[in-house]
Write a structure and sequence with these properties.
alpha+beta; 2 domains; 6-stranded antiparallel beta sheet; 6 strands; 17% strand
């Protein structure tokens, strides 16, 4: 009987888990697609690059959505059991709330290991591959965007005109460049010859100009000067092709656990950079644990909602999820400043989840009501008091 009951509850949970995960991924990806589609429409990037970007973004999105999926799926499953009075029937047969927890425990443990694997392996791979892809796009735009005897803008706010260009040797001759990236001045470069160099490890493209002049004009057009040069380097970083999604430096979110541990050795304890690296390292363990706690919290929450509707369960689950991430973001800001050591602050949201899990499980298992902030609950309690 126990095996049959566990299978029954498990089959109530997993379809909602997958559906919630898919909806969260779709909603988050839709917001990120605005920046990605800008490359396709405005920058002329090929479609297969955009598809690869979406694939590289998925691990980070899934890691963000897993706590919500874990919590909402369990809440909705137990809400359905409670609404149909199945939990009451099981309790009348001597089945306690704790005996209903094995499938919830299984789903929560699966969520914990899935979140840990994604956070430690897939997220660094996705973020690193995404930045590498952006650099490949920048390289292709340098090679394909520059045309002979045509004004072109291969990078944002950088206009080129060259008399001749060898894409094989990446050499330009008789060059005219207008650089408007610095909003305070406008640089106009005239050079006899130039060459393009790529540095994949730094994700930089350098344009090396020979024998020319730089004309610098102020924004107000009231100041101007000219500078002659024999050699001059103009650097194009990832931010010059897609500032919202790319940076030059390798961020902690692109690093594995081993790389983060090595990075910690480069900074002194208490420095802001040290705190940032330590936070990202510890979050690779604290967030999976939060996924486990949220799954376990879902059982008493769903059992308490009773017949208040599935929308109330989804709303309450998302509310708990948002409160957790607000606490996580708040503690991250506090830990970055060093007010609270990261070794302590990162775990505070998990401690609150642990306390909430123990409190709710004991309260519901002992048939003691938990007053939940769901719509209409306050009005019903007030109506009962006035009778």
């Amino acid at each position: 009987m126990k095996l049959t009951l566990n299978k029954y509850i498990f089959h109530e949970i997993w379809p909602t888990f997958l559906a919630t995960l898919f909806i969260c991924i779709f909603l988050i990806l839709a917001t990120r697609m605005l920046s990605v589609m800008e490359l396709l429409v405005n920058q002329g990037v090929r479609l297969h690059y955009v598809v690869r970007m979406i694939v590289y973004l998925l691990p980070d999105i899934v890691a963000f959505a897993l706590p919500a999926a874990s919590l909402v799926s369990v809440v909705v499953a137990f809400l359905r059991l409670s609404a149909d009075n199945e939990i009451i029937a099981l309790k009348s047969c001597g089945v306690s709330l704790y005996q209903l927890l094995p499938p919830v425990l299984l789903v929560s443990i699966m969520g914990l290991f899935l979140s840990a694997a994604i956070g430690m392996i897939a997220v660094p791979w996705g973020n690193r591959s995404f930045k590498d892809l952006i650099f490949q796009i920048a390289q292709s735009k340098a090679d394909l965007g520059i045309r002979e005897r045509v004004f072109c803008e291969p990078f944002d706010d950088v206009v080129f005109y060259v008399n001749s260009f060898s894409s094989r040797e990446r050499v330009m001759k008789d060059i005219f460049v207008v650089d408007r990236r610095d909003k305070s001045v406008r640089n106009t470069i005239v050079a006899e010859r130039g060459q393009i160099f790529s540095y994949p490890e730094k994700r930089l493209i350098t344009l090396h100009f020979f024998n020319g002049t730089i004309f610098v004009v102020g924004k107000d057009l009231k100041s101007a000067r000219s500078i002659g040069f024999q050699t001059y380097n103009m650097t194009i970083g990832l931010k010059d092709i897609m500032a919202a999604l790319a940076t030059r430096r390798k961020k902690p979110k692109e690093m594995t656990v081993r790389e983060l541990l090595g990075q910690l050795q480069e900074y002194e304890r208490g420095q802001k950079k040290y705190n940032n690296v330590m936070i990202d390292l510890l979050e690779k363990f604290s967030i999976p644990i939060a996924v486990f706690f949220m799954g376990m919290i879902g059982a008493p929450l769903g059992a308490q909602l009773r017949a208040r509707g599935r929308s109330a369960g989804i709303g309450l689950g998302l509310a708990v999820f948002m409160i957790y991430y607000m606490c996580l973001a708040g503690m991250r800001s506090v830990c970055e400043t060093g007010t609270i050591p990261p070794e302590i602050g990162v775990w505070i949201p998990d401690v609150f989840l642990l306390i909430a899990m123990v409190y709710l499980l004991r309260r519901v298992a002992n048939e003691r009501p938990v007053h939940l902030p769901v719509p209409g609950a306050w009005r019903r309690r007030k109506a009962r008091k006035t009778r």
